[in-house]
């Protein structure tokens, strides 16, 4: 079995694949689209991260391709409809970067509440402006989580230690799951009107594209602070910029963007009150090790044992029976 890995995969995952009998691998830190298209006809499996876009053309060029494995959670860079039509299984590794993403959300929240990046920049410029960076505490504030899956729950667990009141909106989660964690499930409108901090942890879909828009921003409590290390498609960036300028939103901390890297004219880049990081949600040594090992093992189990886990296009499995 030949496995193509066009993105940088942690060495622990590569080691696992290299030791497997009956496996050859072709790996590179970064392959261009042209290089992937040239190599993929020989591939039985493709393991990617977020950089490689797997579209219909690429999959049609791979007659032997049985599966695509995403070392991470999001699969918005894979054409799932085409994969299902072509009988190709798409799997992700949803557990490995949960803690890393949750910790970054809390880090962004604290940085936003206490103006840490701006104060740091001020000190490096030789200034001493204590009064300019008056912040707020997390204690006693209401945190609204949009999305209460793995990462949302991990954020809730950690935010509870800061003595925050936690509410969540997720139409796919049973109320008792939240209740058991001391979290109240609410409607989206109730969350928007109540939360002092809003942290986004929903998976992208046509239904929630630009979920944070001019209308939903207008429903929020004045002075709300917004954190997003989920997916950039959840936020209408122009609308958020206008809400910050108008004072409706006190600030935002963003790790993800509609287009990555953001365009030079992105209205949020350089806007006072906005903290930026370059999609670092899963960028910890531990997370990269875990997702690499998880997707490598899942790929081997699928190829050699017919065992499929964390399949994101489950309809394709009926074609394999």
Structure, briefly:
The protein is α/β, with parallel strands linked by helices and 321 residues long.
Kindly list the characteristics that best describe this protein.
Rossmann fold, 7-stranded parallel β-sheet, 2 domains, 12 helices, alpha/beta, single chain, 12 strands
What this model shows, in words?
This protein is of the alpha/beta class and 321 residues long. The protein has two domains: 2-96 and 285-320, NAD(P)-binding Rossmann-like Domain (Rossmann fold, 3-Layer(aba) Sandwich); 98-276, Rossmann fold (3-Layer(aba) Sandwich). Helices cover 35% and strands 16% of the residues. The strands form two sheets. It has a seven-stranded parallel β-sheet with strand order 8-7-6-9-10-11-12, sandwiched between helices. Helix 5 (98-114) crosses helix 7 (150-160). The longest helix has 21 residues, at 285-305. The radius of gyration is 21 Å and the shape is globular. It starts with a strand and ends in a 16-residue tail after the last helix.
């Amino acid at each position: 079995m030949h496995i193509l890995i066009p993105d940088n995969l942690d060495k622990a995952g590569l080691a696992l694949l290299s030791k497997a009998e009956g496996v050859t691998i072709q790996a590179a830190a970064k392959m261009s689209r042209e290089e992937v298209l040239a190599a993929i006809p020989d591939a039985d499996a493709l393991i990617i991260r977020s950089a490689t876009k797997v579209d219909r053309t690429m999959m049609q060029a791979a007659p032997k391709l049985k599966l695509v494995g995403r070392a991470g959670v999001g699969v918005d860079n894979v054409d799932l409809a085409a994969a299902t039509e072509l009988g190709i299984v798409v799997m992700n590794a949803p557990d490995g970067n949960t803690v890393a993403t949750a910790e970054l959300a809390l880090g962004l929240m604290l940085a936003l509440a206490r103006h840490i990046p701006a104060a740091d920049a001020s000190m490096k410029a030789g200034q001493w402006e204590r009064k300019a960076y008056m912040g707020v505490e997390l204690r006693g504030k209401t945190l609204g989580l949009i999305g209460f899956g793995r990462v949302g729950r991990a954020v809730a667990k950690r935010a509870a230690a800061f003595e925050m009141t936690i509410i969540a909106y997720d139409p796919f989660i049973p109320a008792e799951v939240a209740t058991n964690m001391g979290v109240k499930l609410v409607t989206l409108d109730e969350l928007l009107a109540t939360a002092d901090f809003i942290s986004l942890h929903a998976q992208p879909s046509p239904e929630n594209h630009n979920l944070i828009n001019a209308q939903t921003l207008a429903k929020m409590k004045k002075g709300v602070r917004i954190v997003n290390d989920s997916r950039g498609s959840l936020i209408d960036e122009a609308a958020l910029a206008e809400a910050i300028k108008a004072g409706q939103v006190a600030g935002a901390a963003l790790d993800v963007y509609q287009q990555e890297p953001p365009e030079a004219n992105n209205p949020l880049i350089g806007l006072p009150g906005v903290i930026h990081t370059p999609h670092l949600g899963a960028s910890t040594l531990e997370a990269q090790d875990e997702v690499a090992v998880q997707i490598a093992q899942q790929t081997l189990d699928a190829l050699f044992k017919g065992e499929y886990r964390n399949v994101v296009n489950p309809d394709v499995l009926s074609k394999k029976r």
